[in-house]
C-alpha cells in the first residue's frame, strides 16, 4: 500500500475530523506527504529544534553501549525512518561487529522513502535495505513476513526496532500504550525496542522548537491545507490561515493547530456538507507529549516491556530508552 496515494482513507479521516463539534482535528500522519516529509527534515536542522540535535548526540556517544545490551546478530527495523540520518550511527557500530546488516526503514511517504533508500544503497554495500511503505504496525508485520519467506531463523538474531524523533509523543497517552502493545505482539523475547522520548522542561525551551524563526514548522503545518486542496478538491483559502503552536501545561504537551483568520466556509469535492470555521477557530493537527522518567516507566510496564537502559544528554532534555519484551 502506498500511503501517498491512499486518498479514500484520507478523505474519510478528514471528513470525520472536520465534523467534530468540539475540536476540529486531522490525524498528524497526513502532514507527511512528500513535501511535508521534506519540510520536516528542514525543521530538524533549525537551531530552535533541539530534539533531533540532542538525540543525534546521544546516538553518537552511546551507540556502542546501546548495542552492548544485544548479544545476537542484529536486524534493524526503523519506524518512521525519514532520512535515516541519525540511524547511521547505529549502522557504523553494528557493522563493526557483524559483516552485513539487514535494514528495513518503514515510512508512510512512499516517494520520500524511495529516494532515501536509493541514496543509502549507494553509500554502503554492506547494508541490505528493503524500504517498507506502510504504517508502523503493518510495516513490522511486512518485515517479519519477508524474513520468514527468506528462511531467516528467528532464534539466530535479534530484531532491533527503533522509533526516533520523540514520535511516541504524537500519540495520546492511552494510544501510546496500545501502540506499544501492538509492537510487542510482533516481537519475541530476543528482540529489543529503542524509543526516543522528549522530556518535560520549561515551556520557554519547548515552544520555540515548534515556532522556528525561519518558518519551516509553519510551512509544514499549513502544507496540509495545500494537500487537501490538491488531493480532495477542497477550497481552503491558503491566505486565511495561520500556524499556531503552544505548550499545554495541564497535559504536558505541545499542541499544533491551524487557526482561521476569519469566518469561513469550506467544501470538499464530492461531499455535500459545508464546514463552518469561525474567526480564531482552530484545526488541531498534532500533539507532542513530553515525558518524565516515571511516565516512561509506567508506559513501558503497561505495554508489556521491561526498561533495560536509559541514555540521556547531560541536561536530561531527551532520553533514548531501550526496552525488552517482558
From TrEMBL:
GO biological process, one term: methylation
The keyword Transferase belongs to this UniProt entry's keyword annotation: yes
InterPro entries on file: EgtD (IPR035094), EgtD_Methyltrsf_superfamily (IPR051128), MeTrfase_dom (IPR019257), MeTrfase_EgtD-like (IPR017804), SAM-dependent_MTases_sf (IPR029063)
Keyword Disulfide bond in annotation: no
Gene Ontology molecular-function annotations: L-histidine N(alpha)-methyltransferase activity
Short name of any one Pfam family annotated for the protein: Methyltransf_33
Annotated ranges, domain Histidine-specific methyltransferase SAM-dependent: 10-324
Keywords for the protein's UniProt record, in alphabetical order: Methyltransferase, Transferase
EC number, as in UniProt: 2.1.1.44
Designated name of the protein: Histidine-specific methyltransferase EgtD
Species per Swiss-Prot/TrEMBL record: Candidatus Nitrosocosmicus oleophilus
Gene name as annotated: egtD
